[in-house]
Design a protein that fits this description.
This protein is mostly helical. Helices cover 79% and strands 0% of the residues. The chain contains 13 helices and no strands. Helix 4 (81-98) packs across helix 12 (249-281) and helix 5 runs parallel beside helix 10. It starts with a helix and ends in a 20-residue tail after the last helix.
């Protein structure tokens, strides 16, 4: 594209759109129709320039012009409770459902890695010795030791808030850092599985694995599922950088990135539930079977939410991205 020729051919249209926007409160019916047509053409011009001959100054001017025109055409819009309901019943579960081919394998492989690490640590005393001194390991694994008192070391409310904050940050990092080809996501996953594997290995080495699982499973099922969903989505975003498919890389990253931001909000709510379980159920005096049952119920409820509501919303066309009217205008690309 010859940018100078393109600008010369369309500058009059952009100036006319700018002039109409400057007096949009006194436009006639014909001028309103002209404003809409000019907005659509200018949005297409912007998309062409961004994809073929990006010029920062021109792109900035047209972006501002298109934004003003969109505001004039569609009017200002405020979020409502209906938007929240739509997000929770359609957008978020559909986004999680659509990414299941990424997070389900991530969950299976990560769980296997944690189990293998736990077996390796539990079966090799020399590895345990490298983790800590014998006295430190005893303090961790003995009855009433640090693994058990950890969950009751702070008031339930503050502990739940701390856990939720830490887990939400880990999930957000998986989603955001996925754009770097997914490599940081793999590292975050490994650290989480290593931490779990150490606990499994040390507690199994002293014959107290059942106690450890009784403490971890009530909240860990839902918590780890949320982390796996975030990691799988981050890996999917990283793969989009490599292979955007029939879309342009810019469009693909914009669509997947917006869906990832929505998932960050939804997963924060899921992790709030797991944090509440960890703060109030895990250290409670309930029998182990009752605590685990609560954790399993929460996990099954989330999976049903994703596969029933999310599957239905996905088949209806929901993707987790914002509505078409809220997106930047683009031109079609060949498949």
């Amino acid at each position: 594209m010859d940018l100078d020729v393109f600008v010369s051919a369309h500058r009059a249209e952009w100036d006319r759109l700018d002039a109409l926007l400057g007096r949009r409160r006194s436009l006639t019916g014909a001028e309103v129709d002209e404003l809409v047509a000019l907005y659509q053409r200018t949005a297409t011009h912007l998309s062409l320039i961004q994809s073929s001959a990006p010029d920062p100054q021109l792109t900035g001017r047209l972006s501002q012009l298109v934004a003003r025109a969109r505001s004039a055409v569609t009017g200002t819009r405020r979020a409502s409770w209906r938007d929240v309901t739509t997000f929770l019943t359609h957008g978020f579960p559909a986004a999680v459902y659509r990414s299941r081919h990424w997070w389900v394998p991530t969950a299976l492989i990560s769980t296997l890695v944690a189990a293998l690490l736990g077996w390796w640590i539990g079966a090799h005393p020399e590895v345990q010795a490298a983790i800590g001194a014998p006295s430190e390991l005893r303090d961790l694994t003995r009855p009433g030791g640090q693994y058990e008192t950890y969950y009751s070391s702070h008031p339930a409310t503050s502990f739940a808030a701390q856990v939720w904050t830490n887990n939400a940050q880990a999930a957000a990092m998986c989603l955001v850092l996925g754009i770097f080809l997914g490599l940081p996501v793999l590292w975050i996953l490994f650290l989480n599985m290593l931490n779990l594997g150490v606990g499994i290995g040390l507690m199994s080495s002293v014959g107290r694995l059942d106690v450890f699982l009784g403490l971890v499973l009530p909240h860990g099922l839902l918590e780890l599922t949320a982390v796996f969903v975030a990691a799988g989505t981050g890996l999917r975003l990283g793969w989009t950088v490599i292979d955007p498919g029939p879309r342009t890389r810019r469009t693909a990253l914009a669509e997947e990135g917006r869906a990832a931001v929505g998932m960050a909000i939804g997963l924060a709510l899921v992790l709030f539930v797991s944090g509440a379980i960890e703060g109030f159920v895990t250290p409670s005096g309930l029998p182990t079977w009752a605590r685990i049952a609560i954790g399993i119920a929460a996990e099954l409820a989330f999976l049903a939410y994703v596969y029933v509501l999310g599957g239905r919303a996905s088949r209806d066309g929901a993707t987790g991205d914002v509505d078409a009217a809220e997106r930047s205008a683009t031109v079609p690309t060949a498949a």
